[in-house]
């Protein structure tokens, strides 16, 4: 049984100032740091005695989330560029309003790019796919992954066996700080127990048991 826990990075400055996230490097807010610490405390309880491996996007907001979690898991994060948010090109460093007013092309298919120097959803899918295969077929039994909403939506589609084209019709992720639990059984079946659970970010010290299989 493989246990994969994904964490959407916690509140970042760009969530509060109307700026584009993407590949722009934003720090966590003070609330975001507290949320990340809470997630780490909760995972420390749940994963006690397990040799969890921690992966993270190398963008600052995900990196800072992973570093807070790492303090509780006793593991150094492994930073991977594959886990970066989708690159939206020249709108990085601009406001969300600027993006809306200057978008070159609406994303009607997975191959469309809002800006010609950015990534399409298919580009992001293909960037993530080798890492997804590495994790789902590797020997690591307990894996924690810290990434971004857009990329985790693609991850979730992959895990559910959906085609890349589904990424233009669905988004499967929650708010900043959401934690999801997924399992790959010895029979190869993929099971999802939680999606974007915000109780971790709001951790109060009350234990919740995660049942791995039935």
Report on the structure:
By secondary structure, this protein is an alpha/beta fold. The chain contains six helices and six strands. The chain has a six-stranded mixed β-sheet. Strand 5 and strand 6 form a beta hairpin. The termini are close together.
Major pleated sheet: 6 strands, mixed
Say what the CATH topology is. Answer: Rossmann fold
Strand content: 15-25%
Low-confidence stretches: 206-214
CATH architecture descriptor text: 3-Layer(aba) Sandwich
What is the count of β-strands?
A: 6
User: Span from first to last CA?
Assistant: 12 Å
Numbering strands along the chain, what is their spatial order in the largest sheet? 3-2-4-1-5-6
**What number of domains?**
1
Instruction: Kindly provide the name of the CATH class.
Output: Alpha Beta
Query: By CATH's scheme, which homologous superfamily applies?
Result: Phosphoglycerate mutase-like
Task: Record keyword descriptors for this entry.
214 residues, alpha/beta, Rossmann fold, six-stranded mixed β-sheet, 6 helices, 6 strands
Task: Annotate the secondary structure layout.
Elements: E1 2-8, H1 14-17, H2 30-46, E2 53-56, H3 60-73, E3 78-79, H4 96-102, H5 121-137, E4 142-147, H6 149-159, E5 179-184, E6 190-197
Parallel strand pairs: 1-4, 2-3, 2-4
Antiparallel strand pairs: 1-5, 5-6
Helix pairs in contact: 2-3, 5-6
């Amino acid at each position: 049984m493989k246990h994969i826990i994904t964490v959407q990075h916690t509140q970042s400055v760009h969530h509060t100032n109307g700026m584009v996230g993407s590949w722009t490097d934003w720090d966590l807010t003070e609330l975001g740091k507290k949320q990340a610490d809470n997630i780490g405390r909760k995972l420390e309880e749940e994963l006690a005695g397990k040799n969890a491996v921690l992966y993270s996007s190398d963008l600052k907001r995900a990196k800072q989330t992973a570093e807070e979690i790492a303090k509780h898991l006793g593991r150094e994060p492994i930073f991977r560029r594959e886990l970066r948010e989708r690159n939206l090109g020249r709108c990085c460093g601009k406001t969300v309003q600027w993006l809306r007013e200057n978008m070159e092309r609406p994303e009607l298919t997975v191959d469309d790019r809002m800006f010609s120097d950015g990534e399409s959803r298919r580009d992001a899918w293909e960037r993530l796919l080798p890492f997804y295969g590495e994790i789902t077929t590797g020997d690591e039994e307990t894996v924690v992954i810290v990434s971004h909403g857009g990329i985790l939506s693609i991850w979730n589609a992959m895990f559910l066996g959906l085609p890349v084209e589904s990424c233009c019709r669905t988004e499967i992720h929650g708010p900043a700080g959401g934690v999801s639990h997924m399992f790959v059984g010895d029979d190869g079946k993929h099971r999802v127990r939680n999606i974007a659970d915000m109780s971790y970010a709001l951790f109060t010290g009350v234990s919740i048991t995660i049942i791995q299989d039935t």
